[in-house]
Each structure stands twice: as structure tokens, then as C-alpha cells.
Amino acid sequence: MTADKARRWANSASLYLVLIIISVISILPFIWIILSSFKPHDELYSKHLTFFPHQYTLDNYLKMFERMVGFGFYYRNSILVSFGTVILTLFAGSLAAYALSRFRFKGDQVIFLVFLGTIMVPGEVGLTTR
Questions:
Q1: DSSP calls for 41-102
Q2: CB atoms closer than 10 angstroms to residue 39
Q3: Phi and psi at residue 107, in whole multiples of 5°?
Q4: For residues 40 and 59, is the Cβ–Cβ distance under 8 A?
Q5: Which of 19, 39, 114, 127 meets the CB 3.0–4.6 Å disulfide criterion with 43?
Q6: What is the pTM of this model?
Q7: What is the pLDDT of residues 28-71, one digit of tens each?
Q8: Cα–Cα distance between 44 and 4 in angstroms, integer?
Q9: H helix or E strand, kind and range, residue 22
Q10: Residue range 101-107: average pLDDT?
């Protein structure tokens, strides 16, 4: 192995190591929340923090479903709206993509750049005050 190859390999290895560390740090709070949802109430609010529950329980989920009247109805509505939005967006996007890729007309590059701009700029930017 030449010195240049060894240097590139070391750079790649260090980059991957940093990316793995950042990924683990980013994912840990989500894992903590999911594991905490399986802890009993006393263990969840005790002074001694533990990562894994000593005793797994589904009581928290049962209480949630008991207290939330109509949860199934709301969940079904959310699923229907989400799937409907995704299907309509895919349909309209595929038609527009086909037209922009196959046909050449005046302004097609402008329309393409507008599509790219709306993808790159999040919708929340429009909600900010001036």
C-alpha cells in the first residue's frame, strides 16, 4: 500500500468514525424515549436513571388508549389524509416530470428551476415574519 492510499484510507476511516459518532448521538434520545415508554410509572420518575427498563410494561400505552376517546377515528383520518396527499402528489409530480423531461417548450427550464426551488426551501420559511 502506498503512502497516498494509506492517507486516503485513514481520512475515510476517520470521516466514517465521526459520522458514526454523530449518528449515535443523534439517535440516542429517540431510543431513550421509546425505552422509557415501556417503563412503569415508579421507575420512570425515580431518582436513579436507567437506560433499559428493569421491568417492561405496556400500561402506559393502555392508559393512553383508554384516556384518548376517539383515538382510532383520529388515527384513521390521519392515515387517509396522508395516503391521499402522497398519492395525489406522486401522480401530479410524475405527470409534470414526464412533461418536463420529454417535451421542450419555452420556459421549461424556468419551471424546472421553480420546482427545484420549492424542494430546496422548506415551507416554514413562508411562515416567518418580516
A1: HHHHTSSS--SS-SS---HHHHHHHHHSTTHHHHHHHHHHHHHHHHHHHHHHHHHHHHHHHH
A2: 20
A3: 95, 5
A4: yes
A5: 39
A6: 0.54
A7: 999 999 999 999 988 888 888 888 998 999 998 888 888 888 88
A8: 53
A9: helix 3-36
A10: 89
